[in-house]
């Protein structure tokens, strides 16, 4: 079945550092790809998405590019802030069929001032 | 987008009892989903609830343990039955509004502790 694999966490960085959180997927079709974020004490929010190969999703300074050839959707940000501290989940959803989300294991990010 | 509320926000229950969680959406949606997030873990889909049909359960989840109702296009309930401490989790509902290309919006979750 479909699956998502994220880089192991937790990740700790200093403010203004460059961030990469790796995400690879396995899917039988051509899924949509998502990054969700869960800030401390809050619910799950959609951060960005990409629906087809070579699409780039972006939001709040974060970016991720849908790479079909490497089945990847790595999350990047050029300069992180303390407020970016959260748990980040990579997820996929098949376009056809049940449209359910399959999540990666999550990566806890802590940014120190 | 969609605004989703859940009740209760948290509860502490005794083993062997049942808890019903409510999910209310501010607009009509066809597809609603129930997820479980065990402590420190990722989200796992329990079932998909479409209005007018029986819920579809994922492998490892059964209707007797997690009965779901979907009486209309803005509301659903999930019951956690005959609870044990292993059921301690955050339970989240989500919706996939029309035209959002599989994008899902999540409720704030219900934090359940079973003693």
Q: What pattern of helices and strands is seen along the backbone of chain B?
A: EEEEEEEEEEE
Overall shape of chain A: it is: globular
Q: Which structural class fits the helix and strand makeup of chain A?
A: mainly beta
Radius of gyration of chain A: 14 Å
Number of helices of chain A: 0
- Our estimate of the beta-strand percent of chain A is over 45%
Runs of chain B with pLDDT <50, length 5+?
A: none
The share of residues in extended strands of chain B comes to over 45%
Number of strands of chain A: 12
Uncertain residue segments of chain A: none
What is the end-to-end distance of chain B? 37 Å
Describe what is shown at a glance.
The complex is a heterodimer of chains A (113) and B (115). With 113 residues, chain A is mostly beta strands.
Tell me the layout of helices and strands.
The complex is a heterodimer of chains A (113) and B (115).
Chain A: E1 3-6, E2 11-14, E3 19-21, E4 23-26, E5 32-38, E6 44-50, E7 56-59, E8 62-65, E9 75-77, E10 86-93, E11 101-103, E12 107-112
Parallel strand pairs in A: 2-12
Antiparallel strand pairs in A: 1-4, 3-9, 5-6, 5-10, 7-8, 8-9, 10-11, 10-12
Chain B: E1 4-7, E2 10-13, E3 19-25, E4 31-37, E5 43-50, E6 56-57, E7 68-72, E8 75-80, E9 89-96, E10 105-106, E11 110-114
Parallel strand pairs in B: 2-11
Antiparallel strand pairs in B: 1-3, 3-8, 4-5, 4-9, 5-6, 7-8, 9-10, 9-11
Notable traits:
heterodimer; A: 113 residues; 6-stranded mixed sheet; 12 strands; 0% helix; 50% strand; B: 115 residues; mainly beta; 7-stranded mixed sheet; 4-stranded antiparallel sheet
Task: Outline the structure in words.
The complex is a heterodimer of chains A (113) and B (115). By secondary structure, chain A is mainly β. Chain A is built from no helices and twelve strands. In chain A, strand 10 (86-93) and strand 11 form a beta hairpin. Chain A starts with a strand and ends with a strand. Chain B has strands at residues 4-7, 10-13, 19-25, 31-37, 43-50, 56-57, 68-72, 75-80, 89-96, 105-106, 110-114. In chain B, the strands form two sheets. In chain B, strands 2, 4, 5, 6, 9, 10 and 11 form a seven-stranded mixed sheet that branches. Chain B starts with a strand and ends with a strand. Chain A binds chain B through residues 32, 34, 36, 42-46, 49, 51, 89, 93-95, 98-106, and chain B through 31, 33, 41-45, 48, 56, 58, 92, 94, 96, 101-109.
């Amino acid at each position: 079945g479909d699956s998502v694999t994220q880089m192991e966490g937790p990740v700790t960085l200093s403010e203004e550092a460059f961030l990469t959180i790796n995400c690879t997927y396995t899917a039988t079709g051509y899924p949509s790809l998502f990054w969700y974020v869960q800030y401390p004490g809050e619910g799950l929010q959609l951060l960005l998405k990409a629906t087809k190969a070579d699409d780039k999703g972006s939001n709040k300074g974060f970016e991720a590019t849908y790479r079909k050839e490497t089945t990847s959707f790595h999350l990047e940000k050029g300069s992180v802030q303390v407020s970016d501290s959260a748990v980040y989940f990579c997820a996929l959803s098949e376009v056809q069929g049940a449209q359910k989300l399959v999540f990666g294991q999550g990566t806890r990010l802590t940014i120190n001032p | 987008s969609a605004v989703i509320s859940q009740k209760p926000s948290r509860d502490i229950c005794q083993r062997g009892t049942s808890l019903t969680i409510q999910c209310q959406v501010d607009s009509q949606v066809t597809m609603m989903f129930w997820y479980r997030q065990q402590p420190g873990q990722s989200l796992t889909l329990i079932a998909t609830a479409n209005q007018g049909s029986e819920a579809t359960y994922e492998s490892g989840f059964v209707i007797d343990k997690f009965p779901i109702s979907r009486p209309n296009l803005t509301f659903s309930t999930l019951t956690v039955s005959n609870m044990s401490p292993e059921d301690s989790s955050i339970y989240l509902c989500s919706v996939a509004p029309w035209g959002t290309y599989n994008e899902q919006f999540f409720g704030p979750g219900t934090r359940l502790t079973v003693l």
